[in-house]
Amino acid sequence: MIYDRADSLNDLVAARLRFVGQRYTSGKREIVGLLIEVGHPVSIGDIAERLPKMPRSSAYRHLVDLQQAGVVRRVTASDEFARFELAEDLTEHHHHLLCVHCGRVIDVKPGTGFEASLNRTVGQLARAEGFVPQSHRLDVFGICATCGRNSAFRS
Ligand SMILES: [Zn+2]
Ligand SMILES: [Zn+2]
C-alpha cells in the first residue's frame, strides 16, 4: 500500500522535475524517498543521519532543486531551524506548530469546520482586495512540550 503511494508520488515528482528541465537523479530520489518515509519535516541534520553517504552540500543542493520544482517546501521557525517537507499538494493540507527554542516542527490537522471558516474569512478579505486566493499556510510559533518543561520557559 505504502509502496503504491510512493510509486505514484515518484511519478508526480519526476513529471514536475521534467517540467522545469531537471532530471530525477538518484540523489534527488534518495531525498524524496526519505521525505515520503519519514512523513514529517526534516532538517539537514536529519537527512545527514539517515543518508550518511550523501554530503550535506549535495543534500542542500538537491533540496534547492526540489524546492524550485515545487516538490519540496521549506518549513521553518527561523533561518537557524530550516526543515523540509514534500509540497502540500503532493501530500495533504495541514498546518505546523513550530518551536522557536529547539526548531521542532509538529504537523497538525485542524477539523474541516476550522478550514471552512478560515477559507470563508480569507475569501472575504481577499475579495475586498480583488485578490483570488488559492491556498493558505498557517504556522504557529511557540514553545514545544519538551522545551516548556525546561524551567527557563516557565512563566
Ligand atoms: Zn522545543
Ligand atoms: Zn488550513
List key phrases describing it.
15% strand, Dna Ligase, domain 1, three-stranded mixed β-sheet, 155 residues, two-stranded antiparallel ribbon, alpha+beta, 2 domains
Structural class: alpha+beta
Main sheet: strand order: 4-3-5
**Number of structural domains:** 2
Q: What gyration radius follows from the Cα positions, in whole Å?
A: 18 Å
**Under CATH, the topology of the largest domain is which?**
Arc Repressor Mutant, subunit A
What does this molecule look like?
The protein is of the alpha+beta class and 155 residues long. The protein folds into 2 domains: 1-91, Arc Repressor Mutant, subunit A (Orthogonal Bundle); 93-155, 2-Layer Sandwich (Dna Ligase, domain 1), CATH 3.30.1490. It contains 6 helices and 5 strands. It has helices spanning 2-19, 26-38, 44-50, 56-68, 112-128, 145-148; strands at 72-76, 82-86, 95-99, 105-108, 139-142. It has a 3-stranded mixed sheet, with no helix packed on it. The mean pLDDT is 91. Residues 99, 101-102, 104, 144, 146-147 line the site of one zinc ion (ZN).
